[in-house]
Amino acid sequence: MRKMTANARVFPLFLAGLFLLLFFGCSTGFAETVTIDDRAGLFSEEQIQTLQQEAAKIDEKIKGRTFIVTTTEYIQSPEKFSDQYLLKAIGPDENGSVLLLDMGNRDLYVSTSGNMIDYVTDSRKNSMLDDIQEDMRSASYFNAAEIYFSNLSTFVDKGVPGGHYRVDRDTGKITRYKTLTILEAIIALVAALILSGVFFVLMKLKYQLKFGTYKYPYKEKSSLQLTDREDKLINSFVTTRRIPKPSNNGGGGGGGSTTHSSGGGTFGGGGRSF
Which of 119, 211, 223, 265 gives 155 a disulfide partner, CB atoms 3.0 to 4.6 angstroms apart? Predict the structure, then answer.
């Protein structure tokens, strides 16, 4: 009886310990990256809360995450740092964007992933960076952060520009992005309704069917013949050509987004010094 009593006491303790281990283990493994990672101390607590609220609205629209990270540490490559920061925070090719404010090297960089690559085209990105750069030079750090979120929200609301495409800066490969406008969707719907109506009227006039009484004599008019057929591939040809890299004209062709690969993901973006 004493042995049974001891086991009965130890077993609940074992379950409790296992529960705590799983709970804290999962919490540590799936901890989310904070929206405003202010390592350089550029913002007040009130400003951080305001920026977090603005980011939350954008996150809901894009079904992803947007971030700001500030630092005073030495960063050899703002592009690589931003890409890897975003990659660790949301995963490869997920929807998101991060603004890096590097106070040590006086650099700023915006990295985009997923659908944000298409929303933040080269021309939109350059316009946004111009405004952020101006505020960073005048030490208006909170205004610069607000411009970042305000521009992202505007870009998402406007949608992906017509004729948009992605250009891989390393290979020159161009990927077209097809968007269906509201007018095109309405025209397609109306055309489908008209065609289906015309088809119905023609079939009704041709056969003069009386629904519910007509039966097709399928047994008398049906037949099936099977034949053997064999196809042989005689020869095949593959033609390849290298697409030249786009010229660096600043605007990226209006609706285009220049991309690159880093750490298993595809990213867009760019940066400036201030």
Answer: 119
